[in-house]
Amino acid sequence: MAYLTASERRTAIVKAAARVIIRDGLAAATTRRIADEAGVNLAALHYSFDGKGEIYTAVDDMFRATTVGSRLVPTTGWTRQEIIRSLLERFQDLLHADRDVPIAQYELLLWALRNPDKAELA
What we know:
- The protein is built from six helices and no strands.
- It is mostly helical.
- 70% of the residues lie in helices and 0% in strands.
């Protein structure tokens, strides 16, 4: 892999981790497998992230941005029901487009619920 800045390397690792989680499941998302998928060595992965928990958090953030970010941004005039309806419609769109992504999101939700220091993600 060509030289990457620290930011580019982090992005590549997060995207690779998402691919591994989507394809193989959260239990199979080892740091070695993620590093191989990203095309970086294991030392570079550990230099970029403090462990799998930090990587999982970044993947969850990326998934959330995908779910929320592609719909219209709610205006100040929207009710809570309209905002919730918009988010649910977006999630339904994603579910129809690729079922593996919502399954990966669900696995990350369960991981967050099982880790008290990650409860805010849930």
